């Protein structure tokens, strides 16, 4: 969008918007606004019972032709219902309207860069792009057409308010666009399809770069814990954490704690790229003709994509394990290429896939446990932290939920990790079942959890560092 916005008597933006500013923008008096809000309440309360519940709001939204799966009846009740009795009386409804109209006015002002009292296509486009949504001209025109009811090419605050007033979620640009793509159908030929979402418009290469840098830094920061975990996993005799740390230091000093980290970091970009590409390819296949993909579909798509990525980069993972478990002589670190050549010459190409089977078996259970725990923790946070406000948990809460669910998922499939690592480190032709029985008979159940504490200790710093670096990269790459 290269065209500039015409100057339509730009004025000063009020520093602290109040309801008085909202009334001026709407061209209403307090009395007129009161009548409008009461009429809207009666529209939903068509039985004249004096309160609103899920069913009444659902019925009202249905009459507004909002697609059934995208109605927000429950969320609307949660946001409005201050006394938590499951109903919304007029006073609660009125308080919601006050807060929502003020919120919408503030974001309207933020988009209205010329402070002219309306939003033109160029301003809307700029706001969307700044939020990481690269919308096409055709979709921008459809957005404007849907909101601009009088078809004069601009969006007034009244039109903006009417479009978003019943949307109970926080009025961010991303949420507003997502709301539009859900409730607005665009006719294309003989079909009506939901416009492409944020996932399509996001600048994927930049997001991949941000994720890659974040992953590389977090893996490097937690490399000592990873080396400690791997060394403990292959121990078949009782070995404590402290003695193992001393052993690594004695053999290689500080560099010993970072052995294999180069390969671990190198894996990040190709693994993420392959997983991302495979996931995008699998989504329409698993989702079906309508393109819808529910939680089970996401789990299956994510699991299969993870399996594809894991298989593709697995030889690097095996060589990393061999590097980390190699016994140094006089502090000499093994040469990467020589070690790789030895594996190829002495054990054959199939050796690079030792332990792949337990690795793949653990993907779906891990993802399932992680997803279930994450969603459960998010629900608990909505209830006990956000007090059923209807808003989504913020990034820090989501980070905490992700760390906890990830640790739980990793713990549940950890025995498979131990079997995989031992198969990778063993140059003999040992099958998964043989390794399992060998561990069970020789060490009991405890043998399957060797090194689990360093693994769990990695979760918090790894997730935190990844999150902080990722957010910093997004800002530097103009993805925020």
Automatic annotation (TrEMBL):
Subcellular location: Mitochondrion inner membrane
GO molecular function: ADP transmembrane transporter activity; AMP transmembrane transporter activity; ATP transmembrane transporter activity; calcium ion binding; phosphate transmembrane transporter activity
Coiled-coil regions, chain positions: none
Keyword terms of this UniProt record: Calcium, Membrane, Metal-binding, Mitochondrion, Mitochondrion inner membrane, Repeat, Transmembrane, Transmembrane helix, Transport
Top-level lineage group: Eukaryota
Solcar repeat copies, ranges: 202-285, 297-380, 393-476
Family, as annotated: Belongs to the mitochondrial carrier (TC 2.A.29) family.
Name listed for the protein in its UniProt record: Calcium-binding mitochondrial carrier protein SCaMC-1
